[in-house]
Amino acid sequence: MTYLIIVLMVLIITVVYHHVGYLALLKLVSRRAHKRIFPEGNIRKNNRFGILVCAFNEQEHIKEKLHNLGAMLYNTELYAIHVYLDGCTDNTYEEAMLAQSHLAKQNVVCHLHYNKQNQGKAHGINELITLTKSNYDVLLFTDVSALLSIDVLNKIDIDFKDPDIKVITGVYVLDEHATPEQQHYWQYQNNVKSMESSLGAVIGVPGAMFAIRSKYTDILDENTINDDFILSMKALKNGGKAVVNSDINIIERECDEQSHDYARRVRLGAGNWQQIKILFELFNPRLGWVSFNFISHKVLRGVMPILLALIYILLFSMAFFSNLLLVKLLCCVIVAVHSLFVVKSTLNIKAKIPIVDKVNYILNAYFLALWGIIKFERGDYKKHWERVHDREAEPNVSIKVIKRIIDIVGSVVGLTLLSPIMLLVAATIKVSSRGPVLFNQLRVGESNDNFVALFNVLKFRSMVVDAEVASGAVWASKDDPRITPIGRFIRKTRLDELPQLWNVLVGDMSLIGPRPERPVFYSKLEKDIPYFSQRTYGIKPGISGLAQVMNGYDESIDDARKKIGWDYAYMLSTSSPRSWFYMELTIFLKTLVVIFTGKGQ
Prior knowledge:
By secondary structure, the protein is an alpha/beta fold. It is 51% helix and 14% strand. The chain has 19 helices and twelve strands. The strands form three sheets. The chain has an eight-stranded mixed β-sheet, sandwiched between helices.
């Protein structure tokens, strides 16, 4: 227990350092740092700028963006705009051509690079870098959704008079429609970046606008997630400075809705994890503040979801196995904080709870990031980048996000608290019958218009080894002779399902949802039961579910036919947060009844 307490304290100290200690250290050191002074007045502006923009389905903003860039108070002979149109399916190209002809009258050069297929932002950036790197002194990267002040090139040009500066960005300002949580997050980020800037070591830049000396830009791996971060930090791998010009405001017009913000958090979590692997060379202590800030800011940010998950596991384990009052109180506080979030979200309660809401936003962001790490390690991000707003809108995104948070927390807590029971069941199976403790079986998971997921479900073995060698794939019957004595008990109490908590943690399943069916039965079920395959459309299958607690295990097609109504009833409940929350709670309570009364089959 002493060892666990030491590990827990180290983890908590690391979390506190990242969120409080690092900021306090920056404040102390940045006050002593010398302010950068650049000469004003008649300085010959000799930097040639290539302004690079990637666009995918931006018909609403592309014309305004190009007019904004064409209005720069800078010698039009010393800058040009390059727009990469990445397989747009709307009128972005036509709108860009109209703006291009208008800019030509103002002697502003605007090149449109059109690609028929959407190949992702990283591919577009690489194409633009390849085309422009040798023609300009500075490459300025900017998003279509961001507006820049017309003197931005002048200010960047002045800053680049310092030969040690390799990367420059500005202050990121969100639209007034941004959520308070997003506003607070970026106020914090701008504050941190300002202090890092005084040390010449800004860690990460907003993709809305940043400039790099062209000779220090590197080609990206096309699976890169956070392209802006990788580009800016790779420029510093051999030394140099990255700074924020506080006189440059970057206005972001397109703010995420809450559900889109959640999706972005998942992707950022994966990106932060990927950055640690790609930018390993920044661990070099010779880079000074760049290396120190990178480790304290981004490396710890990348591993923070894992650290928090470990803290949760240790706390709940110690609360379960020890009599430490403080640990039990902390666990109660954690449960209360998360419960308030679930209740407010499902019942659509708008009342603010100042400290609790902020803590929930931060914790939820980290658990979403943990899901991003898991998805990254599964290989989900090997396909190219898509903007959050351009993905086909899924119904009830907020419910899916809340369900995923509940699944992650529930599976972690479940695996921790139920581990003694799982070990006892495993030992009993091993002693009582020949064969492995666990078995896995291919099942059908979540589906949509583009794919049907297949995964291997984990269960405690409840039947004899090679139960289907003679009969082939068949449903289990009520008094099935293939079921072992201990198997009969664990099936009645549903203890055989406990290993599926791992399937939930990695995202194959949910705690509650339709039963995952075997592919071998699918062709007959789809033939005999209309719309059978739609039961998991947009929904992950679950360990428990309405059909499972109302009907038990399937023994025949008639049983599957009866269950389909329950599955659709569950799907209909997701049309409203209130009805879904009531349904979820009902299924949870009925599941407990099945477990403790042994009414499972």
